[in-house]
Fold:
Amino acid sequence: MTVQTTATAPAREDRMLSLRDRDRILSIVSPIGLLLVWEIAARTHLIDTRFFPAPSSVLKLLIEMLGSGELLTHTATSLRRLFWGTVIGGVPALVLGIVMGLNRTIRALVDPIIAATYPIPKSSILPLALLIFGLGESSKIFMVAIGVFFPVAINATTGVLEINKIYLDVGRNYKADRWNMFWTIALPGALPVIMTGFKLGIGIGLILIAIAEMIGAKSGLGFLIWSAWETFAVEQMYVGLFMIALIGFTLTLALNELERFIIPWKVS
Amino acid sequence: MSAGAINLRPVEGTGSAVRPAIRIRDLSKTFGALTAVDRVSLDIAPGEFFMIVGPSGCGKTTLLRILAGLETATSGTIEIDVPAGSARPDNSMVFQGDSIFPWMTVWQNAAYGLRMRKLPTKTIKEVVGHYLDRTGLTRFSDYYPHQLSGGMRQRVAIARAFANDPQILLMDEPFSALDAQNKLLLQEELLHIWEEHKKTVVFITHSVDEAVLLGDRVMVMTAQPGRLKQFVPIALARPRNIMELQGAPEYGELVHRIWSSLRDEVQRAREIEDKIGVDP
Structure:
């Protein structure tokens, strides 16, 4: 039994590496496959092209809109809001979450507030955000920030609480001060779980930015989709949807790469 | 003198060979109704390699954690001699099991104590370089712990403690998770590094062999509540060769003596566990 395990261990490790590469390839292949099936179904009129136009016709419009610069403006606007929302929601959430993980008193104080506000659907706060921040940029950024805040704060707390107690003992025995307990132990120890929080949060942020831009906005991908509905420009609607999907997809890939880079000790 | 806290006693000069490095008086620690450590008093001499053996659950780890400042005693006092004006830490601990940070390289782990003390980069480089060399880890400076074997990880933990240059080294069964061969190698390496400065060491083990191979004196503790049962001096010459020693007749006698003292306690610990239904 033991002999067998040691004998097969290196071989399994080799295969693990190629499995990772295979996963990366598969994750690109599957969306392309779906688009292909869709194109065929639209051309053979298996599906109603008034609601489901062929990807090729959407692509044609997409290229046109890229040429006019219109699409890039909308995409850049949404991305800018997503970025600032992530920063404004994520950074305080990160600090609060780690402090909650380290300090029992603060955890006891803040935990009930988070538990009570977390289940509120964030989209239902939009009217309030419009009331407080008006129709400008800040209400959009606020919506993203709210969406990013909760998963990051909750994951940061969980991440710190899950750090093996022995590491905190080491910190105390080696006289790490508060700052170093945070910076050299709590933050790196919780980082893998915090990254998951950011991935979740940015995903929610993307949903919320689309919703926020549909109401009371003059730009952004959400606005593009909404105005397409008003003019029954279905292909334009798909261009907007496609861009949002593309952003989500690219961000996931980018965050996975970022994770490999900033958490080099993570054993996958 | 306040109970429970560690009192650091500044000492002028080095002519204090007659004074103990650590003075423990009537030290007790209770957790609710459970008495983990019961009125332990002992003196540990400067430069002594002091071993504590006892059955599992006898409070030996608690005693060490109190010395490390990670727990406070319920009553009693501890005094640790420190040279007056010295910036050296009073203790550094090598923990049981994996305790080096997975998110730091070997180098960063070994340098941790010195970095926390904010020593100049040049000093850190010299000291860490020296101890990584002594533990045979220089080649692995930039490795992360998950790339190392269990034995190498524990060598990093030892390098981290020695590099911090404490007055006292505390070791909590540092080799218990290792296989027999690695254990032997690390015991030898530990003795080599220790010979360099002969720091005061308090070392916990459940292995009688280890206690005799490494120690100058062995303290046997009783099963719960943990009391001092007996001191056994180990008058074996240093530097020691572990391989040769294991064949020597004195070695066998000492192991036998400690084991017969410990045996009743292990038996008793087992009965206690059976009674309260703790998973052994």
Q: What stands out?
A: Chain A has two domains: 1-52, 54-262. Chain A has a mean pLDDT of 90.
